[in-house]
Design brief:
Structural class: alpha+beta
InterPro entries: Thiolase, Thiolase-like, Thiolase_C, Thiolase_CS, Thiolase_N
Number of strands: 12
Helix content: 25-40%
Strand content: 15-25%
EC number: 2.3.1.16
Number of helices: 12
Protein name: Acetyl-CoA C-acyltransferase
Enzyme class: transferase
Pfam families: Thiolase_C, Thiolase_N
Shape: globular
Length: 390
């Protein structure tokens, strides 16, 4: 039986909005990780059957199929194709799923999966343009549902969804702020220990230097400072910019093949993609689908949550991982051990691959057999992936 293994994973540092990566075109940022991936893994780019790339705002500099353009920008052979997909925040995690399915099915032998988002250069929501992404049928289906603004151009709001989650699970403002502060503390500790160094391919920037560190970590943050922030989604709410993911720039990529093909070409597998699922839930609350996605992944894998050594649950907003913890009864010490998107940032289309790269590094460094990654996504969806260290 064919399997799907990861032979290498690499990412850029995550840049703040208007930060170190702001001057780098998203196609060039993608090309940078493609080149770094091939060099680190040791494969010939001519052997790549496809590049599957996640990008959410596919407009302007991120239009016209970023994946194919990145292949050309990387200097890879013109024979290498590429396709770009959008499953909202989980786009590059979905790219990994598609790549794994392709090699297991025998449609391909070597696929590169990843993604990019330059939220500085292509602002979030830019792809809406003059049109409306939701027609009358969707608006009428959810009209009158709390949290759905039927008369707005974009009636589903993730921030409002985060507030609804906080209320449903009884999360306080202080609890969310404490979670956010802990994310920054974990990320700072990991950065100081050099834990991110091996997974990052430093990016040359315009001033001649190289961007090589995640920029979003706020070492000076405190509960007192977080308590001063406004609640933009509800006047009496509990979610703030401090307990939400950061607008960021970044890219990441993974090389996926079969054990047999890797052995025949002198490549060393790092991990096996054990289980990959996707599911959906309430699109208004929007951010709770990681809970059923996790249950589905564990059920298909035949594993219990206690057998998973590290969990990466994307920190779109602090209520998301906190509700996930409450429902799964997972060990909080295993959750996002190197910090999450609140501290490191959330370059939408690139986040899934970035998170998986970081999770793999955590598994490698600590000999952790199983890791589970899940992400909430626009429209009330979620991917979940279980990765087994080899």
């Amino acid at each position: 039986m064919r399997d799907a293994v990861i032979v290498e994973a690499v990412r850029t540092p995550v840049g703040r909005r208007r930060g170190a990566l702001a001057g780098v075109h998203p196609v060039d940022l993608s090309a940078h990780v493609l080149r770094a991936l091939a060099e680190r893994a040791g494969f010939d780019p001519a052997d790549v059957d496809d590049v599957v790339w996640g990008t959410v705002s596919q407009v302007g500099e991120q239009a016209w199929n970023v994946a194919r353009n990145a292949v050309l920008a990387a200097g890879w052979p013109e024979s290498v194709p590429g396709t770009t997909l959008d499953r909202q925040c989980g786009s590059s995690q979905q790219a990994v799923h598609f790549a794994a399915a392709a090699v297991i099915a025998g449609q391909a032998d070597l696929v590169v999966a990843g993604g990019v988002e330059s939220m500085t250069r292509v602002p979030m929501g830019a792809s809406v343009g003059a049109g409306l992404p939701y027609g009358d049928l969707v608006r009428e289906r959810y009209r009158g549902v709390e949290g759905f603004a039927a008369d707005d151009p974009v009636p589903f709001n993730q921030g409002v969804g985060a507030e609804l989650i906080a209320r449903r699970w009884g999360q306080s403002r202080r609890q969310l702020d404490e979670y956010a502060l802990a994310s920054h503390a974990k990320a700072a500790a990991a950065q100081d220990a050099g834990a991110f160094d091996a997974e990052i391919a430093p990016v040359p920037v315009a001033d001649g230097s190289k961007a090589d560190r995640d920029e979003g970590i706020r070492r000076e943050s405190s509960l007192e400072r977080l308590a001063e922030l406004p609640t933009p989604f509800r006047p009496d709410g509990v979610v703030t910019a401090g307990s939400a993911s950061q607008i960021s720039d970044g890219a990441a990529a993974l090389a996926i093949t079969t054990s047999e093909w890797a052995a025949a070409h002198g490549l060393r597998p790092v991990a096996r993609i054990h289980t990959a699922v996707v599911t959906a839930a309430d699109p208004v609350v929007m951010l709770t689908a990681p809970i059923p996605a996790t249950a589905k992944a564990l059920r298909r894998a035949g594993l219990g949550i206690e057998e998973i050594g590290v969990y990466e649950v994307n920190e779109a907003f602090a209520p998301v991982p906190l509700a996930w913890l409450a429902e799964t009864e997972a060990d909080p010490a295993r959750l996002n051990p190197r910090g999450g998107a609140i501290a490191l940032g959330h370059p939408l289309g690139g986040s899934g691959a970035r998170i998986m790269t970081t999770m793999l590094a955590q598994q490698r460094d600590n000999g952790i057999r199983y890791g589970l990654q899940t992400m909430c996504e626009g429209g009330g969806m979620a991917n979940a992936t279980i990765v087994e260290l080899l």
